[in-house]
Predict the structure.
Amino acid sequence: MSHPLSERIKSLPASATLAMAAKARELKNEGKDIIGLSLGEPDFNTPDFIKEAAVEAINADYNSYTPVDGYAELKEAICTKFKRDNGLEYASNQIVVSTGAKQSIANVVQVLINPGDDVLLVAPYWVSYSAMVILAEGNPIEIRSGIETDFKITAEQLAAAITPKTKLVMLNSPNNPSGSMYTKEEYEALAAVLEQHPDIYVLSDEIYEHIHYDNATPFSFAAIPSMYDRTITVNGLAKAFAMTGWRIGYLGGPAWIAKACTKIQGQVTSGTNCIAQRAAITAVQAPVGKIKYMVDEFDFRRKRIIELLEDIEGFEVNVPKGAFYVFPDISSFFGKKLNGKQIENASDFAMYLLEEANVATVTGDAFGCPNNIRISYAASLEEIEEAIRRIRVAVS
Ligand code: PMP
């Protein structure tokens, strides 16, 4: 029976990462020993000093509706953080706190995009960007990159993708799924192109900001003076503070955009959770050194997973500088049979790994990179080592 759902929801693709996690869960329920390397979630607990702030907030009776754009103290703390870590001067009326960075991004797309506007997605890009653009009736336009350019685009590629319909460019560094990071110089080259197009806005998703390795330095696009007035900087607590379920994200940007985001949020969700916001004040103010133990552990696993993957014939492995994913090119398997199963694309390959090796990964198709799969190393070292051992057996 067909249900009378709106065209809007029918046009929306389901999340590939969540679909993979659901399939993995199904196999797990059938008794299979599945190792899940498909989700982007730190396997640490939220640090105690943040949990304590939440308990204090409960006992201090923080239980009423919150201001739609976030508690004033939290917004002040976010302004200080932007200055401290990013060299960005934002006033309180330029900040909006949301239910996860996801809502911050969805708000920006909703308030800027008209039906028919083009939004440039720098592939590989996070799965939800294109879905959010489709919901706003915009056109997601991919600018592709591959492992040969460390998954980064050039200024020439950006210039070639711009049309009179282009309204927004979505950037993400450190990147999910590739872990690549744009340098200041690389971002300045992209900014030089955008300087010729004053009507184009930029969303810079910096949620993996604190998770980086090999002395790579994160750089905020809005820190380029000519880009400040048209860049929206999005960040959140989920990844660096192991707070995925607390649902706190935020943006800094032009006051008129912040005001519009507050307006939409006021009609759709209201201000985000009171206890999580109180705890977020403590998290945002914490010196970055307080979470270094997690980054060090991710770095250790990163080195190990690269070493193990590089040893498998047919895998071309990138060296991520940030986040907690590797994004190997596995296109050498396309057109071949593995254990009698025909592999035509990255989705076939990811499904093959799930069924034959019982390891859940995500197809690169979901991120606009059809030659790759994403493997998360936000898992224990034992799980990572066993997963890669199984993958090696399954593909050799
Ligand atoms: N941006 C990127 C690149 C992400 O990977 C994620 C989470 N997977 C988000 C935004 C959303 O973060 P949050 O959990 O704060 O909504």
